[in-house]
């Protein structure tokens, strides 16, 4: 695959370039059981080649940071979970201290979800979030969404974050992939983010804003499309077809950097 022109600045100035990616639907195909998700071998291999050549490489996901750390098992990658509420630092999970007052409410929401939504997967993301999945029972999506709306309001949690056949309850802490990617991009000349879902759009917006304001010389959005991705994903600077398409772009960037010497 030819290198997309939008990524040429990363080849021209690798020491000032940062590459960030989502996990589910981007580095890993979407699967029925979230616990069974695995990174595409081709994507992992390409990331391993990029780590020593770029300023920084990070995975920014709604998944727990520990899951990402285990799933990729690559040294030199920054692992950021729960949209930025968790990060692996020196091999340990560090949680944003602003989450602490809401730990009890998150645990209560998870317990109530188990009771109120039998048959649906209730994913407890450590102490920072709980996600309800209905991929195996798509007809129950409206029920799960209604429950999440009521529970978030009652427990004073952030408004439910919708994903692919899932909804998440989180603390009302002003962190999303946009704020997280903006912080990770600090000091870089060029930065790119690859994502596939609504939760990734803030990262696209953040990078474009930093480029517009002159903070970044180049801010690049990479949309990883699928039949379930929102329309905004197809409006990214670079558009690829699913995780295999992203893996090909990562490989082409790694090849171009290798050829540069």
Count of helical regions: 8
| Largest sheet strand order | 5-4-3-2-1-10-11-12
Ends: how far apart?
Answer: 19 Å
Helix/strand-derived category reads alpha/beta
What share of the residues lie within helices? Answer: 25-40%
The count of strands amounts to 12
Mean pLDDT: 95
**What's the story with the biggest beta sheet?**
8 strands, mixed
Q: How would the global form be characterised?
A: globular
CA radius of gyration is 18 Å
Describe, in plain words, how this protein is organized in 3D.
By secondary structure, the protein is an alpha/beta fold. It is built from eight helices and twelve strands. The protein has helices at residues 8-12, 41-50, 65-72, 103-116, 141-155, 177-184, 201-212, 242-260, and strands spanning 17-21, 56-60, 78-81, 86-89, 92-95, 121-125, 129-133, 161-163, 166-169, 190-195, 218-225, 238-241. It has an eight-stranded mixed β-sheet with strand order 5-4-3-2-1-10-11-12.
Quick structural summary:
This protein has helices at 8-12, 41-50, 65-72, 103-116, 141-155, 177-184, 201-212, 242-260, and strands at 17-21, 56-60, 78-81, 86-89, 92-95, 121-125, 129-133, 161-163, 166-169, 190-195, 218-225, 238-241.
């Amino acid at each position: 695959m030819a290198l997309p022109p939008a990524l040429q600045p990363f080849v021209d100035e690798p020491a000032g370039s940062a590459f960030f990616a989502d996990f589910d639907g981007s580095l890993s195909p979407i699967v029925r059981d979230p616990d069974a998700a695995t990174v595409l071998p081709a994507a992992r291999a390409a990331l391993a080649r990029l780590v020593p050549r770029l300023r920084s490489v990070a995975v920014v996901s709604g998944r727990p940071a520990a899951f990402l750390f285990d799933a990729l098992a690559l040294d030199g990658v920054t692992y950021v979970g729960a949209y930025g509420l968790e990060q692996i630092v020196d091999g340990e999970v560090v949680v944003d201290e602003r989450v602490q007052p809401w730990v009890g409410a998150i645990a209560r929401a998870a317990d109530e979800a188990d009771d109120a939504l039998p048959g649906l997967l209730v994913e407890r993301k450590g102490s920072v979030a709980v996600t309800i999945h209905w991929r195996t029972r798509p007809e129950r999506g409206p029920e799960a969404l209604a429950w999440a709306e009521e529970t978030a309001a009652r427990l004073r949690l952030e408004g439910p974050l919708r994903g692919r056949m899932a909804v998440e309850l989180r603390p009302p802490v002003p962190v999303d992939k946009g704020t997280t990617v903006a912080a990770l991009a600090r000091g870089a000349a060029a930065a790119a983010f690859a994502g596939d879902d609504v939760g990734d759009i803030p990262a696209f917006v953040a990078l474009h804003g930093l480029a517009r304001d002159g903070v970044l010389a180049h801010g690049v959005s990479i949309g990883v499309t699928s039949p379930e991705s929102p329309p905004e994903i197809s409006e990214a600077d670079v558009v690829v077809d699913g995780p295999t398409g992203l893996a090909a772009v990562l490989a082409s960037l790694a090849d171009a950097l290798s050829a540069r010497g």
